[in-house]
């Protein structure tokens, strides 16, 4: 469509314009050497260079997350103002948790994920950029959808059980607003995860401008990250059952 | 950096995965200018060099998730675009297109100085019109024409379906024609 004949000249003009832009780049060899030097550095030193990042919690930072969480619970329990505003944001496994004192108002009307469409289970792998797995303990899902140009795969089983797998490498994708009770930490196959007990508003963070779009009221959810992939498992009746199901991911 | 037979991307990636940093240096040097251009066009300004280094470091760390049968270039540029997005978002500013026409870019036509001046002016106005596009359309146009990526590559870099790339490019072109005046194109 963009090569619509009516735009041939304009397209040629844009390409010519691109060639006359002033974009001085550092010498490639210098960039290569700098990158190599950083890769050879020990990782903690590298982290300090990420100056613009507010907080990016990843698996290796798990202990820090847990410590922050404990401190947060302690602070919010101790101070009256801690019970009001959003007190902290945790970012983990592609999910941004906005923790506040009051339980936030529920999302009234549910909305689908952007570009969500149903796909045959066998065709999922070709449509997303990460390895997709399934909860073997539950057998074949009833339904599988792919959303947001292949960033999210959702699988649905009876009794409201739902597994979302998403590209956990990039900026947070989902956000959740939580009041008390605060998330509990747990382990899934040796990596840290959070169990969110109560029902809570779930939203989606658009990549375009970081805008947060409410999606629906989510049930109890387990979140964890495995490799590059973030996971949220919703609808299990207890943390123990959620962890057990999560452990069957293959 | 140079060897007798230049390493192709697939070989450089395979060797990087084995921890060969020299092989990765070849990839960095190969895509450094394009990565830098991407960061600048998407609004990294004077922090483009940091963004590019960060993107290459991150790409190395995530190389195991790169699918061998796909192209390295759009995969890398997606990381660059995301890093730039993180930066502009953290800085609380819009991803504005701040590039200028280079001083040497004036259209040269010794026999027709007036025509040359008109052509140079036209380029400046077209750049202004690109700058003024709505963000999504601008990103599509930047990828397709300023970075010369295919529709499929653009889709991968921006994380959009190909149909969305087509429609946003089309709308962008239509708007550019409208805004930049009828004598364009």
UniProtKB/TrEMBL annotation, chain A:
Record's protein name: DUF4367 domain-containing protein
Organism per entry: Nonomuraea corallina
Residues spanning the membrane: 59-78
Taxonomic lineage of the native organism: Bacteria, Bacillati, Actinomycetota, Actinomycetes, Streptosporangiales
Keywords linked to the UniProt accession: Membrane, Transmembrane, Transmembrane helix
Automatic annotation (TrEMBL), chain B:
All copies of domain RNA polymerase sigma factor 70 region 4 type, residue ranges: 124-176
Domain RNA polymerase sigma-70 region: 27-93
Alphabetized PROSITE patterns for the sequence: SIGMA70_ECF
UniProt keyword terms in alphabetical order: DNA-binding, Sigma factor, Transcription, Transcription regulation
Pfam families: Sigma70_r2, Sigma70_r4_2
Family statement drawn from the similarity comment of this UniProt entry: Belongs to the sigma-70 factor family. ECF subfamily.
Identification of the protein by name: RNA polymerase sigma factor
């Amino acid at each position: 469509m963009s090569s619509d004949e009516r735009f041939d000249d304009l397209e040629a003009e844009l390409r010519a314009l691109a060639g006359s832009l002033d974009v001085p780049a550092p010498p490639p060899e210098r960039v290569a050497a700098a990158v190599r030097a950083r890769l050879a550095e020990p990782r903690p030193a590298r982290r300090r260079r990420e100056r613009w990042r507010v907080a990016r919690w990843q698996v290796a930072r798990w202990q820090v997350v847990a410590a922050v969480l404990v401190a947060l619970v302690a602070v919010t329990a101790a101070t009256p103002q801690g019970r009001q505003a959003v007190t902290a944001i945790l970012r983990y496994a592609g999910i941004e948790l906005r923790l506040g004192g009051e339980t936030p108002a529920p999302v009234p009307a549910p909305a689908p994920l952007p570009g969500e469409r149903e796909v045959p289970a066998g065709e999922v792998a070709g449509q997303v950029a990460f390895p997709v797995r399934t909860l073997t303990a539950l057998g074949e899902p009833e339904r599988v959808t792919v959303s947001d140009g292949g960033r999210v795969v959702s699988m649905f089983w009876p009794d409201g059980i739902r597994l979302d797998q998403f590209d956990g490498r990039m900026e947070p994708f989902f956000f959740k607003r939580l009041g008390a009770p605060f998330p509990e930490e747990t382990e899934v196959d040796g990596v840290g995860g959070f169990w969110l007990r109560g029902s809570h508003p779930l939203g989606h963070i658009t990549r375009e401008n970081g805008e947060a779009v409410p999606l629906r009221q989510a049930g109890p959810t387990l979140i964890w990250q495995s490799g590059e992939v973030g996971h949220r498992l919703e609808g299990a009746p207890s943390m123990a059952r959620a962890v057990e199901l999560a452990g069957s991911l293959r | 950096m140079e060897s007798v037979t230049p390493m192709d991307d697939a070989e450089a990636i395979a060797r990087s995965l084995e921890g060969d940093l020299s092989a990765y240096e070849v990839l960095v040097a190969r895509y450094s200018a394009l990565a830098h251009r991407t960061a600048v066009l998407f609004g990294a300004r004077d922090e483009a060099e940091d963004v590019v280094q960060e993107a290459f470091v991150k790409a190395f760390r995530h190389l195991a998730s790169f699918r061998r049968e796909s192209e390295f270039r759009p995969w890398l540029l997606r990381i660059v675009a995301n890093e730039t997005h993180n930066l502009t978002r953290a800085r609380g500013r819009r991803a504005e297109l701040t590039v200028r026409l280079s001083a040497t870019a004036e259209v040269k036509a010794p026999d027709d100085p007036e025509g040359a001046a008109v052509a140079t002016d036209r380029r400046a106005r077209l750049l202004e019109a690109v700058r003024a596009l709505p963000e999504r359309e601008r990103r599509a146009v930047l990828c397709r024409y300023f970075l010369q990526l295919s529709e499929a590559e653009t889709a991968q870099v921006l994380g959009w379906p190909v149909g969305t790339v087509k429609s946003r490019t089309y709308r962008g072109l239509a708007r550019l024609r409208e805004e930049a005046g009828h004598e364009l194109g």
